[in-house]
User: Fold this.
Amino acid sequence: MANLKLILVIGGTGAQGSPVVKALSESGRYAVRLLTRNTASDHAKKLAELPNVTLQRGSQDSQKDLHAAFTGVYGAWVNLDGFTLGEKNELFYGVRAYEIARHHGVKHYVFAKIDYGLRQAGWDEQYHCGHNDAKGRVGDLILSHGQSHSGMMTSVFTTGPYMDMLFDGMFVPEEQSDGSFVWENPAADGKIPLIALDDVGVYNLWIFDNPSESAGLDLEVATDQVSFAEIAATFTKVTGKKGVHKRVPLEDYLAKAEPYPGAYSNWTVTEPGVPRDESFMTWRENFTPWWRYWSEGHAATRDMALLDRIHGSRIPSLEAWMKAKNYDGRSRSVLKSIQDLKEKM
Ligand SMILES: NC(=O)c1ccc[n+]([C@@H]2O[C@H](COP(=O)([O-])OP(=O)(O)OC[C@H]3O[C@@H](n4cnc5c(N)ncnc54)[C@H](OP(=O)(O)O)[C@@H]3O)[C@@H](O)[C@H]2O)c1
Assistant:
């Protein structure tokens, strides 16, 4: 372990962070310190069995825990969980985590973000989605400090929706009595940059391995950029079953999909009806711009040639991913937070 570079991974037990922890560990070049609220969870214990992975108990929204976590590490990979923190706290702790990392002399800081939709859609408030924009603002701030006069290199890793969400949550189709599968949602006909979680580890290993190229870079990734009509058509091609995208008005969809009436955007950890800060979005307020932004094609801007160069054996398409996963349109668990919630109920 003495010669390995130590990387703090925040969000490492999650769907996006787990492949990063695995790739760093498997490389044999890095040791991982994983920050988690619960070192006894199954997710945490499984990762701790990997070579050179240690767990550190702590919370993303504790400056004391962040100080302890960043002490003595070479690098950091940070994915805050907007769905537990909420937009305002994600913004605050996103900035504080970065500042605390600088204080501790971290050499390479990688911030996992989502598109800054509000900025990319021309500052039109219709696109202000809390969990996208909190991360987007922090990413902009970090890169704005530049690389030249600092002792810390910074990189940003930008994902869109996970391709794996076709298994979990809003992207799962409904099986009909005639055997067909229907995606009934408000998606327009734009292309959405979906990222397969299986490829996330390789991209981030490349970022840490190649700082001369990755410092200052916002690496925007996707496996494929597809519309919902294309998702349904690919499903039919791969499974032989009929797949249909049925576009419905946003209001009709929201009424059906809302976890419960009046749910907050971080509904998995917030009791209904508790007093909230004015900045705190409801689930509807958060996912109305979310559907608009992604499905109107604003984010289908990924540089696939760059991604091919960085990860030559990446999953090449939605079709290849569906085949590799034996995708059948039925739900499987992807997000840790949703699994945790189900286990509590
Ligand atoms: N779903 C998507 O398609 C998608 C796409 C791009 C980006 N994202 C973003 O990814 C983030 C969520 O990560 P995920 O997708 O990996 O979800 P996940 O599978 O539900 O995992 C959540 C992670 O956040 C950690 N976490 C939550 N609150 C924490 C706290 N207070 N202190 C320390 N750790 C905390 C959890 O760690 P412990 O439970 O072990 O403490 C876990 O590692 C969100 O901000 C979301 O916006 C999601």
Summary: Residues 166-189+224-299+317-344 form a domain with the UDP-galactose 4-epimerase; domain 1 fold (CATH 3.90.25). The CA atoms of residues 120 and 298 lie 7 Å apart. The chain has a mean pLDDT of 96.
